[in-house]
Amino acid sequence: MNETVEKTSDGAIVYDTEIIDQVSARTFSAAGWKAVRPVQSVLRSGGRGHTLIIGDGSNEFVLRHFMRGGLLGRFVRDSYVWLGEDRTRAFEEWRLLYKLYQQGLPVPRPAVARFCRNGPVYTADIITCRMPDINSLSIHLTEKPANEEFWASLGACIRRFHDAGVNHADLNAYNVQVAADNSIALLDFDRGRIMPAGAWQQKNLARLHRSLRKVSHLDPNVHYSEANWQQLLEGYFQASRSA
Question: Which of 33, 37, 70, 95 is the most exposed place for a label (fewest CB within 10 A)?
């Protein structure tokens, strides 16, 4: 992997030259790609991002425009306060993913990110390599009941991130992704941090627990029970004991 930063007229672009060797504003536009399709939200998973799957004919990527969520997002759509290049949401997430990918953690490989500054505020975008044949945990659980081994492996996966000090700011049933072979990855590390062990680890788990309860209430086809959550926790703590 090779990080390169290129200045633009209104900001900067960071990218991995092993993946993309030329970047411009068109890189972050649907018009700049041969194939484009939107990512459909499911079970109210709109989140903060406007997301497209894009392709150059050989490779597929995921383009996400940073959007605000929550109450503030009703008034400020996609602008963030300027605190310096290295503290932009896009650069922080790109560099965190870069580090985690190099460590062998199951995350998408970062390709390109940018910010566009307008005085005291900026907007941002990020592009990652698309992980093939994956679905969100929320969709996976509608297809068939997951067995105890799967739930334990999910707990062990989360423990891997926690042992590496990774605080995922929005761990939920949409950002947990499951491949056809039941392997697990995490997406969307906006506002993620590397931190010493602390209360945030239990908060991560609690957030995922709430999300699983929510999706199971939204869709009766979701196969989830509190017994599954106990299986996840057993996998989480077993991974700790065997480390």
Answer: 70
